[in-house]
């Protein structure tokens, strides 16, 4: 596409599309990433236990992920602009409708079901679009939009914490629900699919794998290995996201001050930064040195960081700092796995294919949410929970290097020469 064509219509620029994709992702990030701020006030208002309440978070992630193959199909059939518009509106509406609820079952429907469907449509649609706009740099591009999802809540964490203190739960959910819905809807209006010449690539592997459909992909061991690894990594990160408010309280961090700021909101803010930065960073690294080598480094980093974190849990400063390192070792899964998947199975069905892999996050939400809360309740300690998470991270790092790397190389070679 010529410079003149892009100048006449900026929406044909891949960089403009990347920017709009980032904005859409930022607009839907708060339901997942600021959930920890809502757990205490919702428990107080509804009079429910932490385990009951965490079902809401699991529904959000399960609906966001388990429906993603169908959502990916809808995006490919009806176009990303329409579906992203619907998704952003549903996301904002989920908060507005949650504001006046008096029962946890209704919260499951509004915050959980509507929020999960809305965020899932947007997430799958944007990622599927970027692997097509950036065929030769997809690790970086997917990392950037995934960073939007990871870092978007940075802009809302402190405002929401302040709003909860000044306006209460109802006012906070209503106001921010309208804001995130409106911003996402406006950004979605500029979304476009790439012209045919944009999705071409010089990679022999891509040419060989461009036509692999979901039904064929689901029969391959390499897909299920990636699914297992993404489930393991999702579990550890989503445990921290969903339980951080609870274990910070048990560790004596809630109410403490670090650098003149409340420790928990500060940790959540730093987490958003590192969780966002790691996605394009490790995505770019993986474009240079390979996906599996990058996975080994990043997954191993999270295992080590989580071990240090729990060993120094009573120190507020180290709690804040190490929480950021933990997320730096976790967030890159959302750039590495979609890039690896599309490298392996091609981009023709990239959106729907990633929808199936993204279901692994739903598995992680169940284990990291209510199951982790149950383990804590049964043992009256967070130590068994952290031990399981560290083991999952370390195992995923080992699998990336010793199993996924040779298995995927063998599969790609067979695809090229078949």
From TrEMBL:
Alphabetical GO CC annotations of the entry are: membrane
Gene Ontology MF annotations: oxalate transmembrane transporter activity
Q: Where's the Major facilitator superfamily (MFS) profile domain?
A: 1-408
Where would you find the membrane-spanning parts of this chain? 15-35, 55-75, 82-102, 108-131, 140-161, 167-188, 222-241, 253-273, 293-311, 317-337, 357-376, 382-404
Keywords, A to Z, come to: Membrane, Transmembrane, Transmembrane helix
Q: Which PROSITE patterns match?
A: MFS (PS50850)
Give the source's domain of life in one word: Bacteria
The record's listing under SUPFAM superfamilies reads: MFS general substrate transporter
UniProt-listed InterPro entries: MFS (IPR011701), MFS_dom (IPR020846), MFS_trans_sf (IPR036259), Oxa/Form_antiport (IPR026355), Proton-linked_MCT (IPR050327)
Q: Which Pfam families match?
A: MFS_1
Which protein, by its recorded name, is this? Oxalate/formate MFS antiporter
Q: Which species is this record about? A: Polynucleobacter paneuropaeus
């Amino acid at each position: 596409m010529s410079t003149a064509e892009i100048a006449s219509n900026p929406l044909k620029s891949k960089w403009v599309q990347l920017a709009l994709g980032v904005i859409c992702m930022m607009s839907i990030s708060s339901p997942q990433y600021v959930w920890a701020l809502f757990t205490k006030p919702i428990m107080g208002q509804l009079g429910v236990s932490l385990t009951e309440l965490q079902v809401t978070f699991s529904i959000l992630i399960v609906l966001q992920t388990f429906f993603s193959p169908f959502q990916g199909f809808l995006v490919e059939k009806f176009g990303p602009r329409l579906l992203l518009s619907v998704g952003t509106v549903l996301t904002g509406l989920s908060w507005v409708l949650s504001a006046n609820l008096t029962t946890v079952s209704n919260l499951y429907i509004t915050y959980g079901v509507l929020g999960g469907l809305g965020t899932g449509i947007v997430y799958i649609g944007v990622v599927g679009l970027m692997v097509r706009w950036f065929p030769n740099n997809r690790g970086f591009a997917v990392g950037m939009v995934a960073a939007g999802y990871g870092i978007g809540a940075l802009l809302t964490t402190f405002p929401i914490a302040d709003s909860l203190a000044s306006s209460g739960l109802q006012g906070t959910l209503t106001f921010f629900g309208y804001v995130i819905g409106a911003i996402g809807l406006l950004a979605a209006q500029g979304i476009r699919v790439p012209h045919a010449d944009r999705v071409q690539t010089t990679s022999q592997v891509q040419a060989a794998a461009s036509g692999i459909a979901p039904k064929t992909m689901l029969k391959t061991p390499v897909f299920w290995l990636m699914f297992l690894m993404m489930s393991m990594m999702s579990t550890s990160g989503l445990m921290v996201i969903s339980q951080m408010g609870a274990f910070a309280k048990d560790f004596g961090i809630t109410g403490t001050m670090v650098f003149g700021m409340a420790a928990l909101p500060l940790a959540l803010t730093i987490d958003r930064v590192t969780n966002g930065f790691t996605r394009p960073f490790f995505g770019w690294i993986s474009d240079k040195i390979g996906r599996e080598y990058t996975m080994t480094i990043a997954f191993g980093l999270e295992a080590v960081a989580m071990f240090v974190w729990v060993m120094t849990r009573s120190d507020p400063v180290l709690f804040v700092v190490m929480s950021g390192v933990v997320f730096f070792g976790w967030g890159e899964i959302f750039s590495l796995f979609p890039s690896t998947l599309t490298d392996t199975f091609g981009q023709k069905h990239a959106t729907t294919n990633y929808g199936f892999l993204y279901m692994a996050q739903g598995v992680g939400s169940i284990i990291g949410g209510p199951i982790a809360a149950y383990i804590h309740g049964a043992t009256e300690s967070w130590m068994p929970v952290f031990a399981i998470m560290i083991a999952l991270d370390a195992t995923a790092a080992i699998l990336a290097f010793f199993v996924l790397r040779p298995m995927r190389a063998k599969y790609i070679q067979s695809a090229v020469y078949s």
